Write the structure tokens for this entry.
Amino acid sequence: MEEGNNLQHEKNVDLCWNLIGVWGSSTERCKDLEKYFHCQNCPVYTSLGRKLLDRPIPSDYQLECTTLLAKEKKSKATNTESAFVFRAGGEWLALPAELVEEVVDMGSIHSIPHRSNSTLRGIVNVRGKLEICLSIGGILGLERGEKPIREGYVTPERLVVASRRGQKIVFPVSEVVGIVKYTPEMLRNLPVTVSGSKAVLTRCILCLEDMDVGFLEDKQLFDALAKNLI
Amino acid sequence: MLLLLFETKEGRYALPTNLIVEVVPMVKLKRIPKVPPYVLGMLNYRGTALPVLDLCALLEGEESLCEQLLSTRIIIINYTFKEKPKQMLGLLAEHVTETIKVKHANHQTSGILLDDDIYSATINREKDEMIQWFDLKRMLPERVIADLYQE
């Protein structure tokens, strides 16, 4: 520890970076600064930094390392995939993350006369382009849930822009969780009691720590939404 | 090519990082009786016991041992045998704090010095320093290492 104090002492007094380097207040400047721009790039600084390790090993540190090293390493799962998790009405849903292009602030949805229905909401302006706005809740037959389901901060309604093989859809969501990493073990099969369009459009259940999310079948979903446009 | 630099009392060596499993701090080892002095003991590496050799003692004689400093670390490597399956081995060396990147063309065989390869590399871009290539099979002959893994 004494050595550590010495270094601390030196640092405050006469190390070159505190005198003529970037942390120095003298008008005289180190000529190497032109070459390295910052003391952090200078070999003097680097080599003195490395010397900090030339200290005796504290015995408690060594004991801690010994026990840590003896334990099996918990490897992080590497076979993860990402899902975009959001809430539509009262349901938590997920889409493969690669389909989601962007999430933008909610704009006003202009309904199309004689065409708007529960699925086709209308037209929205997304970055200056008019896009057709569809309703995920409408196609899944979900009820509009106004109450936030989670405690605490709830994000406002947003518009999600997703595209699959050149087919672009925009849909409003009640809440966005964001991108969540999952492993195949976190996926569960759909309960057999689920039926109707929900069952067709849901691939499986994604079990996250605090909620279960319906993982949407993207191909069927995009096909079903496209059908509404014809 | 990325090389890990380390030192013994007398010299500086470079080891290609593709042989390295992990670099770990100098931890407490289980001493074993009746082994050569360069065998420091057994390391419990995530549930596997592996022998740790002191490179200072191995390369420079039995009296010198690596100093017990924070920069003295155990380099865990994979040692491949001709006939037996490969084994993990710990090497204790001093000043295991730096890696360098070099082009493979810098690697010159000296042809002298008992046929050891001499590695020349520029460190800190200022001092041109000779660093010896740590050739695993030459520095740690197979029969010496095989003795550590007797069945």
Remarks:
- Chain A touches chain B through 19 residues (CB under 8 Å).
- Confidence is low (pLDDT under 50) at residues 1-6 of chain A.
